Amino acid sequence: MATAESVYHREFPVRGGDFAKAGSVACEIKELLKDLGLAPAAVRRTAIVAYEAEMNVIMYAREAKMALTVSPEVIRLTIDDSGPGIPDVELAMTEGYSTATAEMRELGFGAGMGLPNIKKNADEFAIDSEVGRGTRLDVVIRTNGHVTP
Amino acid sequence: MTLSDLANRLELRVHTTGAPLDRPVGGGYASDLLSDVIGHARKDELWVTMQVHPNIVAVAVLKELAGIVLVGGRLPAEETLAKAEQEKIPILGTPLGTFELAGRLYALGIKGS
């Protein structure tokens, strides 16, 4: 682990249902990581994870806190939401499965690729959900990782 | 080929005024599902879609796409245009449908990956 001085940490609030601002946290995180001089592939992967996580909160949860921690070796994103939770995590992780409403689908959301996209771009991925309470995602992206979407 | 070349050759309407059109287009991707674009489009590609809401700009920024073409004569929502100008993402339009536009782009050398 890097020393405390070299770790950047910031938290972003995300509000459920706020479609007007959708994607703004992910865009801000992308700019931040670019400014920190991280490898472009790691920046792109983190931005995708942040975007999909942000959209999930906007579509399904009441609110969430997205925490970004950056050290020279790893980028960590944790998203802790208060919301309905996911009854069957394995099913939710299946590409193509979605519980989006018809209105969301008309806007091009609900492809059933959000969580799979997050997992695909992560070097470490953990999800913990409790029905009626919320969902927590913990994602680690190594700054020199090999996945290049 | 740049966006500006493509706009001329295919008579695309350019909706944005400040976004750069001189960027080379590295390929194309056609989809109306945002997560599909997030998952599969590549940097510098031109995105063909019928979605017109502001979130398409966020997707284009995150994926570093060259631009967005709206098909079927659809016009960008006002907030979409404002966001596109702010983020410097070119938005173009055509009365053609997705299939026809993709075919014409392909014939000009703009391919998928």
CATH superfamily of chain A: Histidine kinase-like ATPase, C-terminal domain
Strand content of chain A: 25-35%
Q: Please name the two chains that share the biggest interface, counting residues whose Cβ lies under 8 Å from a Cβ on the partner chain.
A: A-B, 25 and 23 residues
Q: Total number of helical segments of chain A? A: 5
Could you say how many structural domains of chain B there are in total? 1
The CATH first-level class of chain A comes to Alpha Beta
Would you tell me which CATH topology of chain B applies? Udp-n-acetylmuramoylalanyl-d-glutamate--2,6- Diaminopimelate Ligase, Chain: A, domain 1
Range of helix content of chain B: 25-40%
Distance between the termini of chain B: 16 Å
How many extended strands of chain B? 5
Task: Note the main attributes of this structure.
heterodimer, A: alpha+beta, Heat Shock Protein 90, 5-stranded antiparallel beta sheet, 5 helices, B: 113 residues, 5-stranded mixed beta sheet, 38% helix
Question: What can you see in these coordinates?
Answer:
With 149 residues, chain A is an alpha+beta fold. Chain A has a single domain (7-142), classed as Heat Shock Protein 90 (2-Layer Sandwich), CATH 3.30.565.10. Helices cover 34% and strands 28% of the residues of chain A. Chain A has helices at residues 24-35, 40-60, 89-92, 102-106, 114-121; strands spanning 8-15, 63-70, 74-82, 124-130, 134-142. Chain A has a five-stranded antiparallel β-sheet, with helices on one face. In chain A, strand 2 (63-70) and strand 3 form a beta hairpin. In chain A, helix 1 (24-35) runs antiparallel to helix 2 and helix 2 runs antiparallel to helix 5. The relative contact order of chain A is 0.20. The model of chain A has no long low-confidence stretch (mean pLDDT 92). In chain B, helix 2 (34-40) links the parallel strand 2 and strand 3 (45-49). Helix content of chain B is 38%, strand content 16%. Chain B has a single domain (3-107), classed as Udp-n-acetylmuramoylalanyl-d-glutamate--2,6- Diaminopimelate Ligase, Chain: A, domain 1, CATH 3.40.1390. The mean pLDDT of chain B is 97. The longest helix of chain B has 10 residues, at 78-87. The radius of gyration of chain B is 12 Å and the shape is globular. Chain B is built from five helices and five strands, in the order H-E-E-H-E-H-E-H-E-H. Chain B has 113 residues and is α/β, with parallel strands linked by helices. In chain B, helix 3 (55-63) runs parallel beside helix 4. The interface between A and B is medium-sized, with 25 and 23 residues.
